[in-house]
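Usage example:
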Amino acid sequence: MENMNYVLPLIPALPLVAFVVTLLLGRWYIKDSAHWIPIFAMAGSFVLSVWAFVAIRGAEHAFVVDLWRWIPVGDFQVNIGLQLDQLSSVMLLVVTGVGTLIFIYSKGYMHGDTGYYRFFAFLSLFAFSMLMLVLGSNYLLLYFGWEAVGLCSYYLIGFYYHKPAAASAGKKAFLTNRVGDFGFGLGVMLIFVTFGSLDYTKVFEAVELQQASQGVMLAIGLLLFMGAMGKSAQFPLHVWLPDAMEGPTPVSALIHAATMVTAGVYMVARSSVIFASAPTAMLVVGGIGAFTAIFAATIGIAQNDIKRVMAYSTISQLGYMFMALGVGAWVAAIFHLVTHAFFKALLFLGSGSVIHSLSGEQDMRKMGGLAKKIPFTYWTLMAGALALSGVFPFAGFWSKDEILGMNWKGGGYVIWAIGLIAAFITAFYTFRLIFMTFWGKSRVDPEVEHHVHESPWSMVVPLMVLGGLSVVGGFLGFPPEKGVFHKFLEPVFEPANKILGVHHEAFGATDLVLMVVSVAVALSGILVAYVFYVRRPDDLPQKAGAVAPPLYRAILNKWYIDEIYNATIIRLVVDGSRWLWRVVDAGVIDGAVNGVGRLWDIAGKAVSPLQTGRVQNYAVVMFLGLFVIVSAVIIF
Amino acid sequence: MADKFVFIMFAALAVIGALGVITRSNIVHGLILLVFTFLNVAGIFLLTQAYFLAVIQVLVYAGAILVLFAFVVMFLNLREFQQLEQLHPKQKWVVLVLAPLMLAEFIFVVTGATYASVGGGLSPEVIAERGGNVQVLGEVLFGEMLLPFEIASLILLVGMVGAILLAHKEGGSENRLREWGEGEEPTSAFVEQEV
Amino acid sequence: MQIPVEWYLVLSAFLFVIGATGVLVRRNLFIVLFSIELMMNAVNLNLVAFSRLHENLIGQNFVLFTMTVAAAEAAVGLAILTSLFRNRKTLMVDTFDLMKG
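Running the assembly step on the lines above writes:
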């Protein structure tokens, strides 16, 4: 355990070094071999994460490494410290493990791109930022990592910066995050003001001792959740995620599926003690999560871009995680985070593989009948789809079912129902994607069809690894609530559970019934998709859409959320800025500055007539002055 | 007693003369009145036993400087001095208010102070003993005040040179020399040009 | 001292103010120069009066010098006047305003 002092800092340090080296030397020296250093760095970090994982098993308390004093300002003391406990070690494994796979995938996907070295440099920077976010031992480091991943996300979304759509998507992501971060920042400040420290250990101790009022805890919880809404794309701050698909597919897989968007979930889980002390906040979390889950799912039905479907799916699944957090099922949420990382990364990478083989085509209406042509992609994607739909015994089933079960048992029947309906819709749109892409008649452009080929090994191997994990990964959580995974994470959430007064029930009949219901719902969703897109692909989808055209249009247009924002908030800000520019800047400020200049001009012209050029006038003034001086002397 | 009477006479005449100088529109009249004023001032010098200065006043000031003025007046041959407005239309009001005030102030200051002799030791008796005003003045002039004396001579030199330079007329000899034909008189324009 | 020194000073003040008025009010350059001479005389009077008070001949010596300076100044002033007249054909002082502004 002593070696942890050295091992732990190395985990984020390796990607950081990779970033610096790749960025500085990439253009002239490394060029097309730019992937080696980052891949090795990530792999190294993964190995060290495994070591850390083994070391922390069963530990009662977190292991903190204080690297150095960062801010020693009177009462405000913050150190650069890394905290290793079961929760952070799980996150470490996900980030480094999935990260390494995606790095390897990128070698094949980004091959030949002009910004090759830039891509890997910033992927490494992102890895560093995410690791710092997860490993930080205080809220300020969390905030630092939070902002840093936002920055990398902005950069990587706008990677193809020549495309205006990509550039504005990056801007949209950053700005929307900023709105959430405003609340997050306030929350952090409130924590400091209330507890006098930002250290996890100190803060959580103080919360357990009930040192703050209910109102303050509620405020902190809601403010922190605002940040989570922005980062994890929950309604109403979800608008940036679909646009973020403008970035390269590996970016979508790593940042917008497996890691960055899960930072919000991690943060809430980390602050479990705080949320446990504010039941209303938990209700809000759960409610918004549930709403987002079904809201995003409905939009996913009508999308035609393969990546957009996955984007809305991500938003929806994140909603599930918050549903779990809202009811105190901390482990369930993290469990779903892990399984989701597996199958969602797989689905994105697989979509990328499809796009790659179709020479860039992303519209599903121009796909079809690809199953035989790209078998590896097909079978791995199938595994991912089954996991996402929650079909037994794939990974997604276990985690999703546990979330629904915990909600039912916690008394949230409405939320359970919403989650169930969303699961149906999820299965539907997932298999709509599979059927439209791989089955049936080929609607592929003849030009493109000639070149359809399976992707290179660097892309296929990660797909297979993730596929395997999607199949067996769920067994970590078996039996529900008592699995290996749960036992591992228990010590972290003990304080929160104590506050909530939660006790674990045994695996009983209720659980079994709920499981059956979940599977039934998932299978029925798949069946409906089959009917729509395999049996009668030519008429049924159109007929269904024609049943309620306004509804269909609403779904297709993402419920017009973007348009509403544009018309209200954006217009307000832009018009306000324009007014400020024209009136305040050009008018007042420039006017003042110019006015000062003109003032002197006018003053000069006013005084100028005094100089008449006539000596006698000057003499009179002198005489007058003499008079004044003599009078002054006389008087005083 | 007699001194005071004489003083008042000289003083009054001097002031009247001065007032005349500044009010007459005819320049020559002003000049003559100035001479008159100076003569009266010389008289007052006599009253203070500054005999040498009185004489110098008449010889140099009235006799040389004002004669110089007279020469220039005649030389310039002004015609229009009587037609034009002689006083500033606007400025005169300011000054006519200011001047009496200033005068009042001066008088106030002067009469309000007490004067004590520094004690130079040269009372009129002592001066008479030492050979008279001229003698003692000469002793002081070439004794203590030798340097200022030399500098004064330099000032005169500078004044002379400056006056010549400034008044020098431009142009070569063509301006001056011209062949006059028989019986031709220099035209008035030519005479004007001479000036 | 039969005649108090204040009398001389008052007379000097009168002459000085009258001279100043002449300098400031008259438009003819000649009269201006005359008034300046008047002012110089007033000063000489002052010097002589104090010379008498302090029983010291320094005052009278100084008058010699001021007279010298007055002479030089009158000469130069007249030369300037001549030059001005040649250029402008007038001696009205308020027409000389080239330095205006």
